[in-house]
Design a protein that fits this description.
This protein is of the alpha/beta class and 412 residues long. Strands 1, 2, 3, 4, 7, 10 and 11 form a 7-stranded mixed β-sheet that branches. A 5-stranded mixed β-sheet has the order 13-12-14-17-18. It has a 4-stranded antiparallel β-sheet with strand order 9-8-16-15. The chain starts with a helix and ends with a helix. The chain is extended and about 90 Å long. Helix 2 packs parallel to helix 5 and helix 6 packs parallel to helix 7. The chain contains 7 helices and 18 strands.
Length: 412
């Protein structure tokens, strides 16, 4: 029965666990936090980048998705003016997608697109949102038979004999879960941000693999976090130097399976810097690589494992108590005082859980704090974390490492 309960708990966790970090990077040497105007292009597919996914039908899903993405930025980020290149936004009675329709033409290079964006809008940057995946995977949950132990009982409250349980019965029931199609909703979004010179200044990607949800739910969830990350960097104030010790960063070694993944490569390096600025105390964190000549210490490391494991979980059942009936009766005690008694009858009921895929990211990494003058490793920390998102697992290891770094400087 314990195994059956755990299987159900996994389904619940996979559908309701909190999602935190997507894979995010921005060019810390740019003035992105100070920029005031951003152009948001319509959605596209990663494999067909010039085929914009737009609709003028206000009741269509595409119209809603482009509108919702725009509102994430427009309503939630202060001091930022947005220009939407999807239908639905008017400026001085002009539909912006018509006013700037030339920007939706295919351009031979990103440089040409950047020049056109700046010429037409004067924006500081533009965002290209794309679906890497957006599909429903259909699997077959097989017919499965179980012999399930059930029980029934009666509970009495405030009766002549106090509270009691009686009339308990146990039996085994043969139960069949029929074959059924199950639908896994998969959505993966990518965002690329460019400045007016066509320099890539921002990357974000996030994915959802869930049962029992629709496309709107997944789109809301992912776009919430691109807006969150973008909004944080826009509102983040540069901290004054916190001490005389300068800590910088060197490269980290990453496993071969993400060697060609620009999002993961840049995201891992960015998170190493970002977590240092958030976690370290009493030191000056030097994020600008051009300023690393005067470092006292630097952080480096390696990631040995960065992979998603998938598991097909077979059907299972759980049991839970079901209230069958409630009856209230009166009785009188030996002193003539009247009481109310409740009699409740219960019976176990069976709940089916169809087969499903579960996904877990496995990240294993080691980080080092190195004395820049001597080359000596003064702090090292290794960790393995499992999470439904790779960046959550990775950042947990980083936070543990920077906790040890704080202890090192506190002890000096």
């Amino acid at each position: 029965m314990l195994k059956i309960f755990l299987a159900a708990a996994i389904i619940f966790f996979m559908q309701t666990s909190a999602q935190a970090y997507g894979i995010f990077w921005y060019d810390m040497s740019s003035d992105l936090p100070k920029w005031k105007k951003v152009v948001i292009f319509p959605l596209a597919n990663s494999n067909d980048k010039n085929n914009w996914l737009i609709s003028r039908d206000e009741n269509s899903l595409l119209y809603w998705e482009n509108k919702h993405l725009m509102e994430r930025f427009e309503k939630k980020i202060k001091n930022l003016h947005t220009v939407r290149l999807a239908p639905g936004i008017e400026e001085k009675n002009e539909i912006l997608v018509d006013k700037f329709s030339v920007l939706l033409n295919p351009y031979p290079t990103e440089k040409a697109r950047a020049e056109a964006v700046f010429d037409k809008t004067g924006a500081d940057m533009y965002l290209l949102p794309r679906f890497k995946q957006n599909r429903i995977q259909t699997d077959i949950s097989p017919r499965t038979e179980f012999n399930v132990k059930l029980r029934s009982w009666t509970e009495e409250e405030d009766g002549p004999n106090g509270d009691r349980v009686y009339d308990e019965r146990e039996w085994t029931e043969h139960h069949v879960i029929p074959e059924k199609e199950v639908y896994l909703h998969i959505m993966e979004l990518e965002f690329e941000g460019y400045d007016t010179e066509a320099n890539k200044v921002l990357l974000f990607t996030d994915a959802r693999r869930e049962y029992g949800v629709d496309e709107k739910h997944q789109f809301r969830s992912i776009t919430k976090y691109i807006r969150k990350d973008f909004g944080e960097l826009k509102s983040k104030k540069n901290k004054d130097k916190a001490g005389t010790i300068n800590i910088g960063f060197k490269n980290i070694n990453l496993p071969a399976n993400i060697g060609g993944d620009e999002y993961s490569l840049k995201g891992a390096y960015f998170a190493m810097k970002f977590e240092a600025t958030e976690k370290l105390k009493g030191v000056n964190v030097v994020t600008d690589a051009a300023s690393d000549k005067n470092l006292d210490y630097y952080v480096t490391g390696r990631v040995d494992v960065w992979k998603m494991d998938s598991k097909w979980n077979l059907p299972s059942v759980t049991t839970s108590a079901k209230l069958i009936s409630t009856e209230e009766t009166k009785w009188t005690d030996s002193k003539g005082k009247e009481h109310k008694m409740k009699t409740k009858k219960y019976r176990d009921e069976i709940t089916d859980h169809y087969a499903y895929w579960s996904f877990t990211w496995n990240v294993r990494a080691t980080f080092y704090l190195v004395n820049a003058k001597t080359g000596q490793v003064v702090v090292s920390e290794s960790g393995t974390e499992f999470n439904d998102k790779p960046m959550d697992a990775y950042r947990k290891i980083l936070r543990n490492f920077y906790g040890e770094v704080n202890k090192y400087f506190k002890a000096k």
